[in-house]
């Protein structure tokens, strides 16, 4: 069997176990919510009989194991129940709100890689000199504030005082874009409306930067550390001894080995961004899944809470599998090995 | 110890970090004596001075019910530091024990424990804390529980990876050969080798715990009023941007300052103790 | 390959049709708290009401600028004891093109009652019957004087369209109506996202003439942050802000030149005391709180400009202007001497009170009232703690008296404009614990007055009953009557809204002022 395929299968197996665990964890969290979900669902004017009836319908009167069974079989059928907050099926809410969050997080992820890696490489090449120190202080600074503080600061500076960017939303009202993927940057292009595409990008900038800042810092710091380590390897010292240009050494010999550990961390940072999106979406009124998640948690909307956390965990697992595969492709030892997965 | 301090002091960045951390700790400890309005951490309103921009009386302005923001930031540091210390004091030992057992014992202990760790790690940390907080009443104690619940797996993973590589080292094999008890090997032989990494991580994590805790209270899931809290101060003030900017900017900078201090210091410690990132 | 190309072509075609230069459309943009509930049988809060009043019509409308009701979908009605016969207009069609029939009215009532949500409780014990194509008779089990007023809460849905979309699992087509309109209203639903935005377009086939200046398109946005609304409005990208903006923000907007629209007379801010839990089970202890509350500072807190405020001083349990209310000259004020006297008669030692003062997380100004009360009551030596409750959790806690907090802060409106819908649900002992009644008051004199108000044959009788009720409620002090509520909306000068700015055009019913067909866009 191809080693990469083996890694994929192994990851999928682990992910399945983890997903079952996550579902149990989520179920456990949801069941200790104080208060009666049926009463909350029906609202203040419902009668005791209505509450009893709904309790039966929601299987709340059955033993916990049976409740978990119902929960899992519903999930497998793609039925996450009804949201008490929007009065719609949770799957429909998630389908509607998830693309907005993913678009934001992916864009922030791109920023993280596009700015974080070069900064790290730059610092490593100039280690011990002023660009290294400057980058070190800057990256430490970016990881030192929660993303909502960056969101507020960016908003104050670049939306209020210097009104360069919009303060909220994903796109201006004037554009009516047909929803195909839910990713506005994609849908606008599908519609061939470049003005709308530019407008959607314009709306993405501030929230994505606020979300990416600490990730940029992390990525830069890690890349630097890994590059510095690689620079101490004999083959690089050899290359230096041969008098290769520093830029060639960095590009051809030092970068790729350093990239592999960075990728792992970037996968983790992606998870952190899915969480931090909760904060950034709140500041920029971004109609995404995270904002939905906060609202349903504040309202103790059981089905929606479970659905949201499950989907976020699933997204995260998928990203990690992709990262693992990428590493497998980049790493010749894994790519060519037949016993790498053992 | 003294040698370490000297090395830290020799690096201007680490020294800055140390000074910032000391400042924050002193501000929190001495809040009742140095706050210009020491009663403003509690149930007090003074509408005559509500929503004032920074001025000679209130250096950082006042909030919407007339309380001095500078005084409240000093008190909020108390809560942040307390939360950080308690969370790390609970999460570190739990994570360390789990990681040691999994890493040293291997076999089914490794499989079971590390899968549990994986489950916790596969929910984005903040989402996990938010979910836990969503279920519990928003109080300081519960915020500590929620953050601890998301924190211990990271220590488990860190210690696990070190313990697993140490397992094959000569000194461990030697101890096994002479028949030392498992607990002795795990805690007396392997654990000391994990300590530099743990200590560095704890210093850096003080900052991150402050970030996570403030994020929870930013979402209204943390400490409740009238207790001052940096995250909820930012959240509440954000409604009044851009007019009343002082409501958000100063508490936001206060978070930045404290976390930056811990990060600079942790960064310096890492160099001193020779720990990899 | 080919499918892909076809899809692309279709997308391009769709985009061109959507972006092709239409005649300059006037757009009105406003915001409310999420969620916007489109199903009229589930409508209960302000955003839902705005949607309902524009997408659906009702048999009657409140009379503008005065008491009483005018026919709307109906042309006239007759009252015979407890039966009300309405004659419908014969020129009304639904947005689907179906004609309006008496059967639609019957269906709308039955759908609301069967679903049992929203304000359906207004119609318990009511049955309806279609007499012929255009007349419908309602029969009430018990006499209910404000029945006609309650009809403003019975939106008429398109039976044929709804039934086409009903399924075995969903007999009332809730899925369809939570995403689509099925009314006769002046605006149709273009798109609806309950968390972010509902877009509506003017209905050219509306049965009444609509002013040319009325907005062609309306975008009702949900859940915008105060700071966002503030900026959008200042930059000319928003037209009417929600009433939930904190006073500082409205003040800042007014200073920037925003106009202030208002709606008043149907509600009040109440601080509710749980009369079943010590120490508030004692009337003197409750009175002490009522006297100690700083009404003057509360008024300062909600003031926006010298002329406009988010409320006016309370004079008792009933807002000024309603049946049985005291005149504006009887404004309540803080009286520490009276508070001390009441405290002396209160059997519980103040330091043992441990009052739980709660505030609703979605209404930031309540936090300030909580802090104000904590400080006010501390002057009497009373200990207390503050707790934030999200709305959903609050409604759950008040369902039993033991779990109901000592002190809850609520904005209550008469949902039909009639005092019965304000007071009965709050104070009648038969009403189960709801968000309106965290007092758990049980008093025979109060019950009697409320019942007399319901059945009173004439306005004078009803006014007398509510006058007695008011006096009794002042004596019992189950509530601190904070202030009479006035909703204030900051708006750009692009819009004129007579029903929200001219008292002679006001409807006296919350949300009705947002009938977009009566607004005018100024370019």
Jot down its keywords.
heterotrimer; B: 277 residues; mainly alpha; 11 helices; 0% strand; elongated; C: 523 residues; alpha+beta; four-stranded mixed β-sheet; four-stranded antiparallel β-sheet; 31% helix; disordered N terminus
Note down, in words, how this protein is organized.
The complex is a heterotrimer of chains A (342), B (277) and C (523). Chain A is mostly helical and 342 residues long. Chain A has two domains: 38-79, no CATH class; 93-335, MetI-like (MetI-like fold), CATH 1.10.3720. Chain A has helices spanning 3-31, 37-42, 48-57, 64-76, 90-125, 130-142, 147-161, 184-190, 194-231, 234-241, 246-284, 289-298, 302-330, 332-336. In chain A, helix 5 runs antiparallel to helix 6 (130-142). The longest helix of chain A has 39 residues, at 246-284. The radius of gyration of chain A is 24 Å and the shape is globular. Chain B is built from eleven helices and no strands. Chain B has 277 residues and is mainly α. The two termini of chain B are 22 Å apart. In chain B, 73% of the residues lie in helices and 0% in strands. The longest helix of chain B has 37 residues, at 69-105. Chain C is an alpha+beta fold and 523 residues long. Chain C is built from 16 helices and 18 strands. In chain C, strand 6 and strand 7 form a beta hairpin. In chain C, helix 14 packs antiparallel against helix 15 (444-455). The longest helix of chain C has 18 residues, at 2-19. Chain C is globular and about 70 Å long. Chain C starts with a helix and ends with a strand. Mean pLDDT of chain C is 90; it is low at 1-22. At the A-B interface, helix 1, helix 6, helix 7, helix 9 and helix 11 of A face helix 5, helix 6, helix 9, helix 10 and helix 11 of B.
